[in-house]
Every structure is written in structure tokens, then in C-alpha cells.
Amino acid sequence: MAAHSNETKRHFQTRQLDKDMADAAQVVGRVTPAESHARMKAERRGLIIVLALLVVLLCYLLGVFG
User: In sequence order, what are the residues at sequence separation of 6 or more whose Cβ sits closer than 8 angstroms to the Cβ of residue 59?
Assistant: First the structure.
């Protein structure tokens, strides 16, 4: 009988852990609009820099500067 009680207790602990993990994942995944805007702005800036460097490299390889 003790083994059955122990299994039942473990089962409910596991279900509670799953619920807690789902709640934590939901909280972590929630992004405020300000954070989203700031991240998108930084990504856009980084993309522009990378594209500019690629254009400069392409021009250098094609001999535009020399």
C-alpha cells in the first residue's frame, strides 16, 4: 500500500512540476512591446551594417576603388 501511495504522490508532483514549467515558459516568452521594438530596431541597425560591409567588400573585389 505504501508503494501505491508513493507512486500517487510522485504522479501529482510530476503533474505540478509540468504545470509550473509551462507557467514559467509562458512568463519567459512574454515580451513587452517596448522590448520588441528595441530588439527590432537593434536587428535592423545590425542588418544595415552587415549589408553595407558586404557592398564595400563586393566593390573592393570588383576593383571599384582601385
Answer: 65
